[in-house]
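FOLDING PROBLEM:
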Amino acid sequence: MAWLYNGRTLKVGKSWSDGNYKHPYNWASAWSDEDKEQWGVTWQDDPDTSYDSRFYWAKDVPRSLTDINAVDEGGDAVLDEDGNQVVTLGLKSIWVAQTKTTANSKLASSDWYVTRKAETDEAIPSTITTYRTAVRTATGTIETAINNCADLDAFKALFVVPMDSDDNPTGNAPIYDFPDEV
């Protein structure tokens, strides 16, 4: 946000000259809006440079949904130290991996039941098996939704929380739609 005179930024608390007159240091607070207009001083808001880093590299620079093979300035493949193609992961790959990580985290707290079953043949409580099955099912559903996105708008829709007519949440955003922990 800045005050401008003929394209030049004016600093509040500093005097300035328009070529004919030297204006006082307190021009910003002492002058009315009409005075500023009379002297050709205008206000300019900073441009909006905000963006959602989940979906964009910078303002109006979207991330790719799909993986991209890295190339150098000459268009040649960029290779790692082992001679493999360097790949920049797309949003789909990133979020499928994130979904798997979330599922693994949700299952980890009940893994001991599975270990106990394998070691002692003691039954896993049905609430635990039901929960674990629901986590795996939700993971598959989320991954399918991610992979079925044809464009960035469809992908962004996965992050929208469903709301009722009173703007109260009615569930989870599809990308986070895991069962409640037991």
